[in-house]
Fold Pseudouridine synthase.
Amino acid sequence: MRLDKYLSDSGFGSRSQVKELIRSKSVRVNEHVVTSPKQSIDTQVDSVTVNQEPVHYEKYVYYMLNKPKGVISATEDDKHATVMDLLDSIAVVKEAFPVGRLDIDTHGLLLITNNGGLAHALLSPKRHVSKTYRALVQGIMTQEDQEKFQEGIVLEDGFKCMPARLSILESNAIEETSLVEITIKEGKFHQVKRMVKACGKTVMDLQRLSMGDLHLDPNLQKGDFRVLTNQERNMLKNYYSDI
């Protein structure tokens, strides 16, 4: 790998920016100053420093984001703020992207990465990776609704969903609301909202809690993000080995 790409991938700026960094004699490879951006780097063997600080290269980045309402799950948009606007520069430099989409008014867990293979494995309709949501519903969800979810909800367009799990956490008879958790293994457009609607109720608030084995950190505030832990990254190997 060329030195300029190595440094760019490691978060030191665009190719043009790291070329200026290299030419300023701030970069050393195996303790020798290097001034050519074309210098070849073996990521497994060579030691690289910038201003005498070691560079830790990683091929892929993995961020957990607690997506807030009001931003869209995209890398860029002309009308709305995107989830990428919430992250730091290294995610942009690494050409990272959100894995799947959450509606603009849905909040919660969103994985950001540049590992296309992992994203495909998590989103593939053939893999049926489970996703769990917590929903505040206008209306009282019942055991009958639970049975409908278990059998497979039929949406308004005639599509029959795979069997899903509906857990009723709380019911408020005075306000006629329910707090529920819903686990699905598909990712149809507005699926959770449409499933609840098929039961004659309306989703008022929707939060994604988990995607496969990856669970939202309860200490992560809305709009905040963090790098995945080694344990979380290892769990992702259950879906795709090249992590």
Summary: The mean pLDDT is 93. Residues 129 and 185 are 5 Å apart (CA to CA). The first helix runs from residue 3 to 9.
